[in-house]
Amino acid sequence: MRIATYNINGIKARLPRLLEWLEETRPAVACLQEIKTQDEGFPAAEFEKIGYHAIWHGQKSFNGVAILADGTKPEEKQRGLPGDDTDDHSRYLEADVAGVRIANLYLPNGNPHPGPKFEYKLSWMERLRTRMRTLWESEQPTIVLGDFNVIPHNDDVWSVRAMQDDALMQPESRNAYQRILADGWTDAVRTLNPRGGVWTYWDYQRGAWQRDHGFRIDHCLLSPELADRLTAVGVDKEYRGREKASDHTPVWVEIGD
DNA sequence: ATGACTGCCTCTGGCAGA
């Protein structure tokens, strides 16, 4: 089964592109981030028409995540990241699909650094690690995927110098990500592309796409039960070049039976 | 040195994004 993540940067503006991608690549599960709509604005009927059932966690203007599944409704397991009752951002949604626990996340960007937004990012990452330890202990096949807003290594970015002051690659951000990996999770794209050089995001500005000035921030982390079944990963790079594209590309993993 | 795109919901300009 193919499980994908796609930061779509606005589901209303992106709907034609999104439907096109679903029909052309037909992932079993598609995790979306930055739907940027309240719950009542989610276009569930458009997905039903092409055979996808969805659950979603919206928010006005910003954030928002959704999980789509081909031919089956995702069984919701967790809405919102636990650990802080004052956090009202819609950035986390969990569901079971075909016996696999799917955790879809949109991790805070954290810019500008330093500042309160960066502190929010780091505290969110610690809460995520706590949640992932609970998932780990369940021993259920689990994938935690989405827009992590972390550039893990220097070979995951076109220019270290251009991004050195950005929250996406501060040592604190990277260390928090590495602590999660050190708990035993497998970064699927990294594992099958150990030399780096794979981008999942290209800025709209400065001709970044045309110059291939990108970096890797959309990740798929696998529990041991799924890492053993990993057969392929991919980035649907071509979609970044289409009309009215998101600034991210879809990223996917293929899991064997 | 600065801003540079894009989407959102409108205080159609200001904020957020990365």
Describe this structure in words.
By secondary structure, the protein is of the alpha+beta class. It has a single domain, classed as Deoxyribonuclease I, Chain A (4-Layer Sandwich), CATH 3.60.10.10. The protein is built from 8 helices and 14 strands. It has a 6-stranded mixed beta sheet. Strands 5-6-7-8-12-9 form a 6-stranded mixed beta sheet. Helix 3 links the parallel strand 7 and strand 8. Helix 3 packs parallel to helix 5. The chain is globular. The N and C termini lie close together (8 Å).
Secondary-structure blueprint:
Blueprint: E1 2-7, H1 11-25, E2 29-33, H2 44-49, E3 52-57, E4 65-70, E5 75-79, E6 92-97, E7 100-106, H3 116-138, E8 142-147, H4 160-163, H5 171-182, E9 186-187, H6 188-192, E10 201-202, H7 208-211, E11 214-215, E12 218-222, H8 224-227, E13 230-235, E14 251-255
Parallel strand pairs: 1-2, 7-8
Antiparallel strand pairs: 1-14, 2-4, 3-4, 5-6, 6-7, 8-12, 9-12, 10-11, 13-14
The protein binds one DNA strand of 18 nucleotides through residues 9-10, 12-14, 34, 36-37, 60-62, 109-111, 149, 163, 166-168, 201, 203-208, 215, 217, 244, 247.
The CATH architecture category equals: 4-Layer Sandwich
CATH top-level class: Alpha Beta
Q: Mean of the pLDDT scores? A: 96
Provide the structure class. Answer: alpha+beta
Low-confidence stretches: none
What's the helix count?
8
Sheet with the most strands: spatial strand order: 3-4-2-1-14-13
How would you sum up the major sheet? 6 strands, mixed
CATH homology superfamily: Endonuclease/exonuclease/phosphatase
How many structural units, i.e. domains? 1
Separation of the first and last Cα atoms: 8 Å
- Gyration radius over CA: 17 Å
Percentage of residues in helical conformation: 25-40%
Secondary-structure element order, N to C: EHEHEEEEEHEHHEHEHEEHEE
The total strand number stands at 14
- Determine the strand fraction and express it as a percent band: 25-35%
**CATH fold category name:** Deoxyribonuclease I, Chain A
Shape: globular
